[in-house]
Write a structure and sequence with these properties.
This protein has 202 residues and is mainly α. 81% of the residues lie in helices and 0% in strands. It contains 8 helices and no strands. The protein is rod-shaped, with a radius of gyration of 27 Å.
């Protein structure tokens, strides 16, 4: 396999490096998301009941102790709950954006790898074809079909590798983005429930 890949030229190395980085990012994000408890195991409902019963201190403590994005967002919201509605919504939006940014970490790098891998492959193919035609010129055009075909398939190897890396990377990126979008939607639903609870104080 190493001998086979070595025929693709120097650009095989960065393409393979891209594949390793993409796989590492995908696995790291999967592990990270598997540990994320967006809703905090019914946290919004519990905090909502405390707020409606004017048990603000208990609600704040519950949000603060929750190791979840929802808990961190609601903890910041509790700190400004008595201020005007505009301030409350601004804090909630900012806190939600922070959590979404954290969940989206490295996804741009994954998208970049998906974009540049086929370009690296194409560049490798172009360089390989240039070398192949240089050989043909040096031999005065007296090249049999076997020599020409060998040079071409070696040149095309990098394009195949680039596409082989790019396709699963793009799929992985789309999957992770969809999960982040779902988490963001859950955070927004939770904050809406929180705001409604503030309006129904007993």
């Amino acid at each position: 396999m190493i001998d086979f890949l070595s025929k693709g030229g120097v650009l095989v190395v960065p393409i393979l490096l891209c594949s390793v980085i993409a796989l590492a990012i995908f696995l790291e994000r999967l592990i990270r998301y598997s540990r994320v408890r967006i809703r905090g195991d019914g946290l919004v409902e519990k905090i909502g009941r405390h707020i409606k019963n004017n048990e603000d201190h208990q609600a704040y403590e519950l949000a603060g102790k929750s190791d979840s994005p929802m808990g961190r967002v609601l903890a910041q919201a509790m700190e400004v709950k008595d201020q005007d509605r505009e301030t409350l919504e601004t804090v909630i939006i900012h806190a939600t954006d922070e959590e979404v940014t954290g969940l989206s970490r490295y996804l741009q790098a994954l998208a970049t790898i998906g974009n540049i891998a086929p370009l690296l492959g194409l560049l490798g193919t172009v360089l390989g074809m240039i070398k192949a035609f240089m050989v043909i010129q040096q031999m005065g055009g007296k090249v049999n079909a076997a020599v020409l075909a060998g040079g071409i398939w070696e040149a095309m190897l990098t394009t195949a590798l680039g596409l082989a890396v790019a396709l699963p990377t793009i799929v992985a990126h789309s999957y992770l983005v969809a999960r982040v979008d779902r988490y963001e939607s859950q955070l927004q639903d939770g904050t809406v429930t929180f705001i409604k609870a503030l309006g129904r104080r007993s």
